[in-house]
């Protein structure tokens, strides 16, 4: 896909139409009728008075609104995806572990809990269990273990 800055208006419209057909906005983050009417009035007033600066500012406001709410929608979608995984689990240990890391006292963070888990797994199971993990988790495991070993040498 071309970068948006290299598209003309019809290409942007076509790309946007294709995207929104596949990814409709299903939640409260979309512009509603009242806001659209207010923006239309602001645009009409700016055009009638010839105030180009106000017109451009209104267009920028609409863009910024869309950007902000697109970000909020992405955060909500990610949260919903994680909640779906947690709720699907027969055992609630995934959610319990996340909540434990979140509510640890000040000074003890999730990074400490993760390092503790990695060191414990290495101590009790060694490489036999870790080699069963997906590549991304294995890399993080070995990186964390290496950082722990450097800390304990210091």
Overall description:
By secondary structure, the chain is mostly helical. It is 76% helix and 0% strand. The protein is built from seven helices and no strands. The protein has helices spanning 9-22, 33-49, 52-88, 93-102, 110-125, 127-130, 135-153. The chain is elongated and about 75 Å long.
Number of strands: 0
Q: Give helix % range.
A: over 70%
Major sheet characteristics: none
Question: What value does the Rg take, in angstroms?
Answer: 25 Å
Annotation field: number of helices? 7
Low-confidence stretches: none
**For the terminal residues, how far apart are their CA atoms?**
50 Å
What is the overall shape?
A: elongated
Look at the helices and sheets and give the structural class: mainly alpha
The amount of beta strand, in percent, is: under 5%
The arrangement of helices and strands along the chain is HHHHHHH
Overall pLDDT confidence: 82
Helix-strand layout with pairing:
Elements (H helix, E strand, L loop, with lengths): L8 H14 L10 H17 L2 H37 L4 H10 L7 H16 L1 H4 L4 H19 L1
Helix pairs in contact: 2-3, 5-7
Brief overview:
This protein is mainly α and 154 residues long.
């Amino acid at each position: 896909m071309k970068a948006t800055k290299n598209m003309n208006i019809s290409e942007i419209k076509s790309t946007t139409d294709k995207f929104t057909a596949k990814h409709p906005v299903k939640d409260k983050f979309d512009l509603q009728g009242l806001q659209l009417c207010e923006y239309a009035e602001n645009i009409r007033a700016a055009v009638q008075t010839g105030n180009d600066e106000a017109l451009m500012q209104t267009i920028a406001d609409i863009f910024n609104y869309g950007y902000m709410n697109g970000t909020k929608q992405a955060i909500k979608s990610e949260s919903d995806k994680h909640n779906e995984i947690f709720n699907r689990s027969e055992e609630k240990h995934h959610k319990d572990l996340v909540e434990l890391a979140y509510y640890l006292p000040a000074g003890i963070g999730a990074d400490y809990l993760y390092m503790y888990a990695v060191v414990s797994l290495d101590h009790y199971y060694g490489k036999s269990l870790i080699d069963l993990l997906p590549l991304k988790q294995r890399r993080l495991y070995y990186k964390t273990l290496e950082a722990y070993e450097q800390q304990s040498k210091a």
